[in-house]
Amino acid sequence: MTSRSTATAWTLFVLTALGLSGCASTQLDTAPPPHPDREAAWCVLAPVNNTTTPYAGERVQRELAALLGAQGLPRVLVPPAADGGGPLPIDNGADDQRQALDWARHHGARYALLGSVDEWNYKIGLDGQPAVGFTVRLLDLQSGRIVWSGEASASGDSREGLAVLSERTLAGLVKRLLT
């Protein structure tokens, strides 16, 4: 192989790599980890849904509960759905979150993981890139204080689904929480 064809091959490789990686970005900002009691009962509340996508909060709730379990937390509680599988919700779930906090206290949870879903969609355009945005807070139910908070936003590439992007982004938050 000549040096000119080698240079051309490397140039194509670098341009391809830049093209594939240039579309995705992630931003994570969190407080320092609080070192919570991992053996205590944790309750994952459905985040308030500030998007136009129905049930985005419930989807994130299930992902967070699964991620906490995957990190070895032995007692992860999820309150029953407030709507009972009824019609599409007409609010963002803030009232449901308050009721779920009461449920968590009643069932002996020490911590409640709550927050909001602020973006959950595919960007309009030729590529249709997925985009997500979350805030997450850890509430110590004994003291009533927020002991940790984090926010994350991410956009993926056109070959990636919302669920994959969401899970990866939330996993980054959970990892920082439990480090």
Written description of the protein model:
It is a single chain. The chain has 179 residues and is α/β, with parallel strands linked by helices. The chain has a single domain (24-178), classed as ABC-type transport auxiliary lipoprotein component (Rossmann fold). 36% of the residues lie in helices and 26% in strands. The protein has 4 helices and 7 strands. Strands 1, 2, 3, 4, 5, 6 and 7 form a 7-stranded mixed sheet that branches. A hairpin with a 4-residue loop joins strand 6 (130-140) and strand 7. Helix 2 crosses helix 4 (162-178). 29% of the residues are buried.
Can you tag this structure with a few keywords?
single chain; 179 residues; alpha/beta; Rossmann fold; 7-stranded mixed β-sheet; 4 helices; 7 strands
